[in-house]
Design goal:
By secondary structure, this protein is of the alpha/beta class. It has seven helices and ten strands. The protein has a domain of 170 residues: Rossmann fold, CATH 3.40.50. The longest helix is centred in the last third of the chain and has 18 residues. The model has no long low-confidence stretch (mean pLDDT 91).
Length: 243
C-alpha cells in the first residue's frame, strides 16, 4: 500500500485585500505521509482558506506550500470533499464523478461508488439520493480524483448523528485502506477523535497553532471509551478558545 504525499506548510503572510490584520503570519507545520491531521478552531479563523491554499487554488500568499515535494499549485489535484455535496443535479452519480475527472471511465466510477456502498446507484440523479448517499458520492468523487491525498472541509456537517457515525466509519475505513494523507477541517471534536492522528488547534488573527496534539493510540485501535476520552479532551481545549 503506497502512502500519500508529505505536506509542508510555511506561510509567511496571508491577508485579504482591504483588511488590516493578516489571516496568517509565520504559520508552519508538516503532515506526515499517510497521516490524517484535523484542523480545529473557531469560525472565521481561516481553516477553509488554509485548505484552499493547500489545494493550490488560493495562491495569493507569501511563503511556500508543497505537496509531495511540489508546489501545491503544481502538484496533482487533491480529492476534495466540501460542507455540501456539490453534485450537479442534472448528472447521474457516475457522471458527477466523470465531470471532475473526464478520464475516469464509467467502470472506474462504478468501482468507487461500490467502495462507498453505492452499488447499483450509478445512474441515479442527486435528487433521487438521500443526503447521506449524496455525501458518499462526494467521497467517491474525491477518491477518483486522488485517493492518496484528500482535503475534507467539514464533510459531515448538517447530518444527523446516526449518519455521522456511519460516515465516520466509512471515511476511516477508506482512508486507512488507501494510505491517504488527509487534512480534515471540522468543528466536531468527535470527528477529530475518531478520524485523525493529530489535531492542530488554531486561534486568533493572525491565526496561530495554540495546541498540536498527537494521539498515542492509532486510529484503527481506538476503542469507544478512548474516542469518548479524546472527544472530551478536545472539546475542553476548543471551549477555552470561545470568548
Amino acid at each position: 500500500m503506497a502512502l500519500g504525499p508529505r505536506v509542508k506548510v510555511d506561510v509567511v503572510l496571508k491577508r485579504f485585500e482591504g483588511t488590516g490584520e493578516p489571516l496568517f503570519a509565520n504559520l508552519s507545520f508538516e503532515v506526515e505521509p499517510g497521516s490524517v491531521v484535523a484542523l480545529v478552531g473557531p469560525s472565521g479563523v481561516g481553516k477553509s482558506t488554509l485548505i484552499r491554499m493547500i489545494a493550490g487554488v488560493d495562491r495569493r500568499f507569501e511563503g511556500m506550500i508543497t505537496v509531495g515535494g511540489l508546489p501545491a499549485s503544481e502538484a496533482p489535484p487533491a480529492g476534495l470533499v466540501f460542507q455540501d455535496s456539490r453534485l450537479l443535479p442534472w448528472l447521474s452519480a457516475i457522471d458527477n464523478l466523470r465531470a471532475v475527472r473526464p478520464e475516469t471511465s464509467r467502470d472506474e466510477a462504478r468501482h468507487w461508488l461500490d467502495r462507498v456502498g453505492l452499488s447499483g446507484s450509478g445512474d441515479a440523479l442527486p435528487d433521487q439520493l438521500s443526503g447521506g448517499m449524496q455525501r458518499r458520492v462526494a467521497l467517491a468523487r474525491a477518491l477518483s480524483v486522488n485517493r492518496g491525498f484528500l482535503l475534507l472541509d467539514e464533510p459531515l456537517v448538517s447530518l444527523d448523528r446516526h449518519l455521522v457515525t456511519e460516515l465516520q466509519n466509512l471515511f476511516a475505513e477508506l482512508i486507512a485502506a488507501e494510505g491517504s494523507t488527509a487534512l480534515l477541517v471540522t468543528h466536531l471534536a468527535e470527528d477529530a477523535a475518531r478520524l485523525a492522528d493529530r489535531t492542530l488547534l488554531l486561534e486568533g488573527r493572525p491565526a496561530r497553532i495554540v495546541a498540536d496534539r498527537h494521539f498515542p493510540v492509532a486510529r484503527q485501535d481506538r476503542t469507544a471509551p478512548e474516542i469518548a476520552r479524546l472527544t472530551s479532551l478536545l472539546s475542553g481545549e476548543a471551549k477555552e478558545l470561545t470568548p
